[in-house]
Design goal:
By secondary structure, the protein is α+β, with helices and mostly antiparallel strands. Strand 13 and strand 14 form a beta hairpin. Strands 15-18-17-16-19-20 form a 6-stranded mixed sheet, with helices on both faces. The protein has a 5-stranded mixed beta barrel with strand order 10-11-12-14-13. It contains 14 helices and 20 strands. It folds into 4 domains: 72 residues, GMP Synthetase, Chain A, domain 3 (2-Layer Sandwich), CATH 3.30.300.20; 78 residues, 2-Layer Sandwich (Alpha-Beta Plaits), CATH 3.30.70; 130 residues, OB fold (Dihydrolipoamide Acetyltransferase, E2P) (Beta Barrel); 192 residues, Nucleotidyltransferase, domain 5 (2-Layer Sandwich).
Length: 527
């Protein structure tokens, strides 16, 4: 987006930040703060450290002298599939006729670190339609607002071909095209909506395809782990009821469409919070809202503007084929686990205490990573630990140090006691991944904050190597919020201290795994 600000920013910075693309600016009159938002590719974000961010703030302060100004950074990710889905998303929202004619065959995409090029190959009538309207300008602006690279869009006429096959469902039309990465849903009654949102007319995207911030997106799936909490209303004043109550509701849950799992958050008004009481575990819904990428750990979060009940056609989802389960372990073999005491299970305390029904007939793999930091897109694992629990009894463990092939930051060594020399010569996680995949088959994956950290980190490698971890997930952090309401803090160390759980070698993978197993035991008893 080239404008007067970009020219002034380039001049004031001496062209030091070519990796930044201006996206938008927001001035909040009540606080007097000006926020300037830049796009930055996930690749460039790795090297964009605090010193560079400080310099950007200094440049902005020079340009907007006397104004409280700071920068925000929106990470973008561009590959062929991501760009093509953005093209589909644009026409899904703006031009149903063109949208119905699109497929992977007539949307050619090339993307590198500098340029994203899109070529639309359409029949003459569709080309003329676009040329009569805004040409490809709207699509180019849309892509320009979502990707850091220079955007090029070309329209090319093709010879007439056999039209695609449609199912006419009244107002909605579903394209029977196996290359379309959109999901067929039947939208039901409204559960929640901000403003005047009366319905959702677009087809939902795959959660797996949401790899960057998106201002307006539709996603669907089954709801899991829904919790309601409150947070302090910063605008609250006792003498002015117009500023609302002192505490406001916060609703969090996960949305799972079988291609991925999305952390969702909603900020309803106090009188609206009760509508979420009707949403049960595994209910199917379709939602619209905004996806942001956490500056803390690089994980996506979906801020919900509207939620409707839905009937999802899961057969419309193109299930990716995973690599087969290895026939045998090659690098890391599970080790049989022997109870340190005479207890038969984790739940026997000498009085033959009954194992909670939550565990019966199930296999869990509780796992934990230690890594070079918190930012999912850039960090590397340095240790993995896991324990397999069958019918409430630990049967096997799986653990190893991992070579990140880079320097372990001092702050990580201080926390974990893992040094460069300890991991040198150990296998990389990429090498260990097939063995861990075999270890987890048929199990529920469990971890503390697994949804926002451990599983996204695991999935980063799994997707690259062709392994699909389609396991059910349980997050003891989310379970603790629901079943241990007296806890003021739900970090693993805080919970183990409050509950009197032995937590030996905190911030080492197996130490955290055994503590999480015991925490799960407490939660299971409450369930």
């Amino acid at each position: 987006m080239h404008n007067k600000f970009t020219e002034e920013f380039e001049r004031a910075s001496g062209g030091a930040f070519p990796m930044l693309k201006f996206r938008s600016a927001l001035y909040q009159k009540d606080t007097g703060i000006l926020t300037v938002r830049f796009l930055i590719s996930a690749y460039d974000a790795r090297a964009f450290d605090d010193d560079k961010k400080k310099k950007v703030d200094e440049v902005l302060s020079e340009i907007f002298a006397g104004v409280d100004v700071h920068a925000e950074y929106i990470r973008t990710f561009a590959d062929e599939g991501t760009v093509r889905n953005k093209v589909m998303e644009y026409f899904n929202a703006t031009n149903a006729i063109v949208f119905r004619a699109l497929s992977a065959e007539n949307v050619a995409v090339s993307a590198d670190t500098d340029t994203v090029s899109v070529t639309l190959s359409l029949e003459p009538p569709l080309c003329k339609m676009l040329q009569t309207a805004d040409g490809t300008g709207g699509l180019r602006d849309f892509l320009d607002n979502n990707f850091n690279q220079h955007i090029s869009v070309t329209l090319r006429e093709t010879e007439s071909a056999t039209p695609p096959v449609f199912d006419d469902l009244g107002e909605s039309v579903v394209v029977k095209d196996p290359n379309m990465r959109l999901i067929t849903v039947e939208t039901g009654k409204k559960i929640y909506a901000r403003g005047k949102i009366a319905g959702i007319s677009r087809m939902p995207a795959y959660i797996a395809d949401v790899k960057a911030a998106v201002d307006n997106v539709v996603l669907c799936g089954r709801v899991t782990g829904l919790t309601k909490r409150t947070y302090k209303n910063k605008k609250y004043t006792p003498d002015d009821p117009k500023n609302g109550p002192e505490e406001l509701p916060l609703v969090r849950f996960f949305l799972d469409d079988t291609t991925g799992r999305m952390d969702c958050v909603c900020f309803p008004r106090a009188e609206e919070a009760s509508v979420f009481d009707s949403v049960g575990e595994k209910d199917e819904v379709v939602c619209t809202g905004k996806v942001t990428i956490s500056s803390y750990n690089g994980a996506p979060s979906f801020a919900i503007n509207a939620m409707f009940s839905a009937k999802i056609d899961f057969s419309s989802i193109q299930a990716a084929a995973s690599k087969p389960v290895p026939a045998k372990y090659s690098l890391i073999r599970p080790q049989p686990f022997t109870e340190p005491t005479s207890q038969k299970t984790l739940f026997d305390d000498g009085e033959a205490k009954k194992t909670p029904g939550y565990f019966l007939g199930k296999t869990f793999v509780i796992f934990d990573f230690e890594a070079t930091g918190l930012d999912i897109p850039t960090i590397e694992p340095i240790e993995i630990g896991a324990a397999k629990v069958k019918d409430g009894k630990i049967t096997e463990t799986f653990s190893t140090l991992l070579d990140p092939k880079c320097h372990i930051p001092e702050v990580v060594t201080e926390t974990t006691s893992i040094t460069d020399s300890m991991v040198r010569g150990m296998p990389t996680f990429k090498e260990v991944l097939p063995d861990f995949f075999k270890f987890t088959r048929g199990a529920v994956l469990v971890g503390h904050n697994i949804s926002s950290y451990d599983f996204p980190l695991l999935n980063k490698y799994a997707q690259a190597e062709g392994y699909i971890f389609d396991n059910e997930l349980e997050d003891t952090l989310l379970l603790a919020r629901r079943y241990i309401p007296e806890a003021r803090h739900v970090g693993l160390e805080a919970l183990t201290k409050m509950l009197g759980i032995t937590h030996i070698e905190a911030h080492r993978a197996m130490g955290d795994v055994f503590a999480t197993v015991e925490l799960l035991r407490v939660i299971a008893e409450r369930i």
